[in-house]
């Protein structure tokens, strides 16, 4: 069993004080910085690009930065985010013309690749690429916005992915993203996830450490 990773989504952080807010959430016990990149084309919202990733690195953030690309096409931004200091980079397979090539590009740029599945995206995109994956990200909301409600049927999808990972024999993390809270994180872990993105659940609280500790307590039970 891999150590659980808590990955706050900076989509819900204070953009006017982003460096400080990211520092604060890491000091509160977060493991990974989740970076939601939206292009107002693949998803109906617009966020931030590689400049912000680079700025966080220059500010002194050394924790892994987990870039979740909700963009189409993907390859140009893969290169730019890798150069900007990304650690993990994932994309939605239906947004790439050549999935294997995009995964290989992430590896060649020195980052760890992942594929992202929307609630209704079939898992067959995993066929033939399991050997390249560092993580599989299961969306438990439709992508585009923070603060949405967890879609319960995605737990079955996490279970199905867990089974595929076990059968493959590869060491692949299973990440969950959307509507993760203190009161559902344990059920999500039991289904097989080991990396947990949480935006509004953490950044809406004054005391980040309190909510992250509560999440870890749930995971330890
Ligand atoms: C949605 C993003 C998520 C989102 C999670 O498209 O990928 O990372 O910010 O936010 P919460 O935890 O508020 O659902
Ligand atoms: Zn995300």
From TrEMBL:
Name of the coding gene: rpe
PANTHER family (UniProt xref): RIBULOSE-5-PHOSPHATE-3-EPIMERASE
Protein name per UniProt: Ribulose-phosphate 3-epimerase
Keywords: Carbohydrate metabolism, Isomerase, Metal-binding
Domain of life: Bacteria
Catalytic activities: D-ribulose 5-phosphate = D-xylulose 5-phosphate
SUPFAM superfamilies: Ribulose-phoshate binding barrel
CDD domains per the UniProt record, alphabetical: RPE
């Amino acid at each position: 069993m891999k150590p659980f990773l808590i990955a706050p989504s900076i989509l819900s952080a204070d953009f006017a004080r982003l460096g400080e807010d990211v520092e604060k959430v890491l000091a509160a016990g977060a493991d990974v910085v989740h970076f939601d990149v939206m292009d107002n084309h693949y998803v109906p919202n617009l966020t931030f690009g590689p400049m912000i990733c680079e700025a966080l690195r220059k500010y002194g953030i050394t924790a892994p930065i987990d870039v979740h690309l909700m963009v189409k096409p993907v390859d140009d931004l893969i290169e730019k985010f890798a150069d900007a200091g990304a650690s993990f980079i994932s994309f939605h397979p239906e947004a790439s013309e050549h999935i294997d090539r995009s995964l290989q590009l992430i590896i060649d740029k020195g980052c760890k690749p992942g594929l992202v599945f929307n609630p209704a995206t079939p898992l067959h995109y995993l066929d033939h690429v399991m050997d390249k994956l560092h993580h599989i990200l299961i969306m438990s909301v439709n992508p585009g916005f923070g603060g949405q409600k967890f879609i319960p049927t995605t737990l079955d999808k996490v279970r199905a992915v867990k089974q595929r990972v076990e059968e493959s024999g590869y060491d692949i993390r299973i990440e969950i993203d959307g509507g993760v809270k203190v009161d559902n994180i344990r059920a999500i872990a039991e289904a097989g996830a080991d990396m947990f993105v949480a935006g509004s659940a953490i950044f809406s609280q004054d005391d980040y450490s309190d909510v992250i500790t509560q999440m870890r307590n749930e995971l330890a039970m």
